[in-house]
């Protein structure tokens, strides 16, 4: 699949090679039974993925550096770079969830390599060094928190605490990192990027539903996670009049219904999800005495997110009073919204327009390494459509031509930001 | 605890002996760890309970008969009974759930013995034979269905099929019945009772909440059990706009909310409970793709129960259409309501009034052996209060004086029905 580069671009993106690398990396850790591939951070399968990416970096004659938390970087040096120049950084991650698609994370890393390849094939040295990162443990399946490598890189988590993390399987992250040979010596954050641009699949349905080709990600939602426990009374389903019930299951359902109304009333800015929900004792003819559920609230605006949290707390107090139950909430995670850099956003928009690709500004609903690196450098993201919005699933899919379009935009934006093309 | 009998009663109920037998039977199968007692049908613990009850029957010189499904009967013969007279039957069951209270079932059986004792102690022979039954496997913990012994006795389930039932522990009911020595030779239903009166704790909160002493049970709710499966789409909680969601968990919550409204709109006749509810995949940031829950609908009126089922079906169709999910329902159990006998109901009311006990007509929300025997004979039930409505739990409790009051009413009603007292 060859795509004609924009006339104003001196460099050409090799779409076929990018697609081939996505497929090849997707074979590593393949699970013929469960479907897709499973390359959970710092497992043998993920080590194999890392080895493959590092080999591809070396084939492009990039300088490979690995930091203490295992983030892998391939650097394409500018002529002027004596090692002190702040590079333009791009990338993502190559660890996966269980039975993952081939695109989440990998697409951004391999598109970064495709950008470097375009420079190499044209024999052009970039005006500013380009640093392609594959961050450790973005998925957070085995070790918490997720987005760990970029969080440590941005100074949000001390590296020693990250290394001491104990996984769901009882292993220590630092030991596993050393075991697979990726405990580097570079200090995380030692090279502060000049700016950061991440290309990613949307992992949501918006672009596909609208038939839009490129998402220009201008911000990333704030996230509020909490667990709610409702304690009512277990009574006999046949003998307890409705007015005498303290039905923890009904209260949970009322909260779910309230959250939907709250989301609907927000004009689409607030999202609310109850993903986990269980009732006890879970017997057909016993009124639930206890309900435990999670609430995932998101909004790109911190004030609105706080308002949603406050309204939920208010509703919980009201319903507890009205139903004679007690309700306890436990915060699980809280991230403020991230606003991306206006200049990079404008450059992405301009680039999509140059190619004639339909595009729209949008909010990232999922967390990404970009939100961590945004703490230390101007950042933004480019999205391509995800079929059906499906991700973290073997059925994750983006059409090949859309993958190539996204990488073209990434290359074009980088050329523009580095002054290789005139606006 | 001695209670003065009604002046018009020639017989006296020995309340202290009744309470002592309830306590003694409650010791059999006691579980010091989980609390209460566990005498699940046809286990060694339940055999010990049966042996105790049979011993007490023999002490009262009752004729003990055991039928092929293991129902145990103690018969106090009238002078005129040559074996062909239809007896007045009373009783209940002595099997329990796990970690049960001491009253559920046992109270009715032992109160029946107290009635026989009153005759014996007064040296009076009843005008009609009195048959006190302890029915097999009312609770249905190990072998399904529940109320099995009375169901078989009433001809609702062939005895051979009941004997061939395989339990949750893989045992065959007939084998266990033989093992504990209670496979009798009497054909179930061979003696059709003239009428049946069952004394039971309410297992609900109504009498206690109202401060009423005696419940005159005029009917027993119809029960409709179904399992509902909602199939939606699992999508990312952060990237999927509310309008594009197919949230199986939200649909389940909407059904729970609908059922509450349906119950509220019925003026208390329809009860609706969702006792089991689980969502899949059950991940905090994933919109549930699947929800499975049970619906327990009850109403003492068959037409209203059918209307509730129809309205639920209508709502499920509407919400499936509106949310783009598929909904499947599976019937689990269905019992039509049972109306008890107007004559016996009036006699119970008259008796409570004679004693000056506060009383009310009411519906039984739980299933009882009386509903099965009502298929073959006029029947009714007497309830006494249950503290907090709690049952199937070691905390099940009824005050001693309330237990004695209930037994006094049972004795008085039987005397009235048998013509020993003038109305």
From TrEMBL, chains A, B:
Cofactor notes: Binds 2 Zn(2+) ions per subunit.
Positions with a binding annotation for Zn(2+) 2: 104, 139, 392
Domain named Peptidase M20 dimerisation: residues: 221-321
Record's keyword terms, sorted: Hydrolase, Metal-binding, Plasmid, Zinc
Gene3D superfamilies: 3.30.70.360, Zn peptidases
Domain of life the protein comes from: Bacteria
Binding site for Zn(2+) 1: 93, 104, 200
The keyword Transcription regulation is assigned to this record: no
Molecular function per GO: hydrolase activity, acting on carbon-nitrogen (but not peptide) bonds, in linear amidines; metal ion binding
Hydrolase is among the record's keywords: yes
Cofactors, names only: Zn(2+)
Sequence similarity: Belongs to the peptidase M20 family.
PANTHER family xref list: ALLANTOATE AMIDOHYDROLASE, ALLANTOATE DEIMINASE-RELATED
Name of the protein: N-carbamoyl-L-amino acid amidohydrolase
Annotated source species: Cupriavidus neocaledonicus
Taxonomic lineage from the root: Bacteria, Pseudomonadati, Pseudomonadota, Betaproteobacteria, Burkholderiales
């Amino acid at each position: 699949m060859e795509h004609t580069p924009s006339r104003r671009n001196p460099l050409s993106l090799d779409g076929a090679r990018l697609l081939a690398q996505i497929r090849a990396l997707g074979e590593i850790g393949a699970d013929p039974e469960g479907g897709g591939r499973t390359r959970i951070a710092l497992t043998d399968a993920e080590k194999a993925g890392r080895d493959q990416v590092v080999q591809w970096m070396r084939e492009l004659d990039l300088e490979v550096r690995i930091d203490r938390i295992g983030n892998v970087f391939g650097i394409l040096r500018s002529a002027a770079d004596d090692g002190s120049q702040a590079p333009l950084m791009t990338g993502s991650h190559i660890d996966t969830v269980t039975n993952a698609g081939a695109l989440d994370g990998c697409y951004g890393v391999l598109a970064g390599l495709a950008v470097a390849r375009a420079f190499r094939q044209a024999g052009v040295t970039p005006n500013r060094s380009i640093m392609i990162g594959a961050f450790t443990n973005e998925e957070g399946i085995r070790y918490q928190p997720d987005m760990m490598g970029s969080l440590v890189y941005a100074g949000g988590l001390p590296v020693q605490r990250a290394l001491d993390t104990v996984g769901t399987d009882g292993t220590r992250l630092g030991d596993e990192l050393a075991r697979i040979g990726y405990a580097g010596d570079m200090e995380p954050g030692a090279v502060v990027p000049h700016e950061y641009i991440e290309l990613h699949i949307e992992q949501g349905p918006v672009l596909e539903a609208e038939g839009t080709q490129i998402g220009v990600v201008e911000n990333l939602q704030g996230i509020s996670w909490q667990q709610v426990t409702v304690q009512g009374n277990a009574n006999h389903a046949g003998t307890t009049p409705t007015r005498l019930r303290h039905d923890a299951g009904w209260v949970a359902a009322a909260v779910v219904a309230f959250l939907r109304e709250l989301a609907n009333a927000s004009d689409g800015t607030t999202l609310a999800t109850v993903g986990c929900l269980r009732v006890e004792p879970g017997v057909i003819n016993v009124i639930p005495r206890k309900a435990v559920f999670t609430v995932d609230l998101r909004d790109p605006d911190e004030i609105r997110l706080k308002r949603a949290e406050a309204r939920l707390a208010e509703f919980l107090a009201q319903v507890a009073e009205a139903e004679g139950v007690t309700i306890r909430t436990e915060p699980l995670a809280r991230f403020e919204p991230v606003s991306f850099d206006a200049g990079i956003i404008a450059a992405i928009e301009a680039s999509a327009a140059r190619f004639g690709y339909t595009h729209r500004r949008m909010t990232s609903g999922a967390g990404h390494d970009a939100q961590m690196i945004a703490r230390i450098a101007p950042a933004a993201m480019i999205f391509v459509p995800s079929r059906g919005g499906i991700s973290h699933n073997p059925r994750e899919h983006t059409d090949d031509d859309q993958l190539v379009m996204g990488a073209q935009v990434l290359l074009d934006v980088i050329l523009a930001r580095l002054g290789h093309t005139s606006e």
